Amino acid sequence: MNTERLKIFAAKNGIFLALVVLIAIFSILRPNFFGFANGQTILLQAAELGLIAIPAAFLIMSGTIDLSVGSIASAAGIMGGLTMANTGSTLLGFAAAIVTGIVAGALNGFLISYLGLNSFVVTLGALSVWGGFALLASGGRTIPRADLPESFRAIGTMKFGVIPVQIVLLIIVVALGWYVLNHTKFGKEIKAIGGNQRAARLMGVRVERSRFLLFVASGAFAALAGMMLSAKVQSANPSIGSGLELEALTVVLLGGVAFEGGVGRISGVVAGLLFFRVLRAGLVFLQASPFLQTILVGATLIIAVALDSSIQKMIRKSWARLGKNAVQDPQKEPASVGS
Predict the structure, then answer these.
(1) pTM attached to this predicted model
(2) Under CATH, what is the fold of the domain 2-327?
């Protein structure tokens, strides 16, 4: 029985051990890899992806998926950039970007939650729609640094003490996600929907409304990520969010969020995010080919999906064995299948 519990613990927390091992390997290969400056750089590179990964985790826990977040980030960044270029106002630029993200997310949410369309198909189509919109609105051109207000460009280099504003924002979003998932009724409803939608309805959960709100939040945070990326690179590029959807999905699955829904932890998503960024940073340190890094993203996603399937099956079998043993020994009861 202890063996089964150990298997469950290892399956749920393997990403944390993998992260430690990965850091150790790169630290051995490059002794200066594990330092404050490089650690800050890794977190800085992880910030915008984290803004997208946290809402993505909520969606997958609810049994849906959003593959359009990368294009939404690009479209929102362009709309924000065009607004700032024409008005000189950073505030209006952020407002235009966030509204774009909310509209995109609301459209996805309406089609999926209220019309019952498949989330994979809808958001895959939206990936092309918003990517094309970003190119159309910008004429396929990057909005250069000179056209953006100084106050916006300053955001890209702003710090609180020694900590870049992007990292501070990531910490806030992670803390907010953790609180909502673990300490609010809405968070419990999300897992209930993903675990058993019919049972959730019988419990009084408004499934359509909850999923709709998740898609709106996903669009809004994707837009914020697009603006923060634009501030970081000091320009608005119509393809700035390209590939973020696959990276976010990889991070979420590496973090132990079950693709079938109902199971996941914010701490696991953070560990998956760090693992992914440490891996890429380590390859850069080792001067690996950029093409190899692109291959790695796809390979890591495939591995993450395979591990997710295997881990969930193993956990279910272990819980089943624990349940059987509990029947044989009434004084021992298996824990509930929580996150």
Answers:
(1) 0.86
(2) ABC transporter involved in vitamin B12 uptake, BtuC (1.10.3470)
